[in-house]
Task: structure prediction
Amino acid sequence: MGEFIDKTKGRIKQAVGSLTGDQKLKEEGENDELKGNLKGAVKDVKDAVKDVKRSIKQATK
Result:
């Protein structure tokens, strides 16, 4: 859930920064969006590791 919030917050900051000409706010938004993407990637890796563990456990039975 945190990844979605960070991505959304980042997109909003980028849009407001673009509309107002606030480069700092736009960059903060880009960083927030990247943070959300990173959280999503970490979650995907954790899920993949769990799947591999589960597969190995089933294969050794």
Summary: The chain has two helices and no strands. The mean pLDDT is 94. The longest helix spans residues 23-59. Helices lie at 2-20, 23-59.
